[in-house]
Amino acid sequence: MKPILILVKSKYGASRRYAGWLAAITACDLAETKDFNPRNFDRYETIVLMGGVYAGTVAGVDFLKKHRARLQGKTIAVFAVGASPADAEGLNLMQSRLKASLPEAVLFYGRGCYDEQRMNFADRTLCRMLKKSLLKKDPAALEPWARAMLESEKQGACDWCDPDALKPLCSALKIEINK
């Protein structure tokens, strides 16, 4: 069997942490999308993309989409990392967006981090503006991601990364987890 490739597109580090954990479990190759030469896709049978969620889209999917011809016949898994707790409606929307770009890809999810102090100016400003608009709404009517964002305001920096979130992905790829 050809090895597994883990590709990472991580802005603030949570996706990179999950990728590191998966690489340690599987002893497979790990590369950042920005450093990976797409000609090397032929070395792998399975591609796992680990990317952050931004506005419902997984970072790095565009990279795979751009090189889709090289991915024919391969197993493709996308592990999305977001600050929100997993909720069925949000995951279904993310899955439908993924299927529109990469119909053969399967989506998995792990919760990441939220720390405005580590964000760049633009991201921090957008998050603060979003929070202000959410505070004007009825809390009972907020979606799970919006409630989580407002809860993070009270907690400061939040880190929800959990290696157990990799279990469904490992199970689907038939990877045994040795703790």
From TrEMBL:
- Which InterPro entries does the entry link to? Flavodoxin_dom (IPR026816), Flavoprotein-like_sf (IPR029039), Protoporphyrinogen_IX_DH (IPR052200)
Residue span, Flavodoxin domain: 5-134
Q: Which SUPFAM superfamilies does its entry note?
A: Flavoproteins (SSF52218)
A single Pfam family it belongs to is Flavodoxin_5
Example GO molecular function term? FMN binding
**Gene Ontology biological process terms in this record:** heme biosynthetic process
UniProt-listed Gene3D superfamilies = 3.40.50.360
Protein name as annotated: Flavodoxin
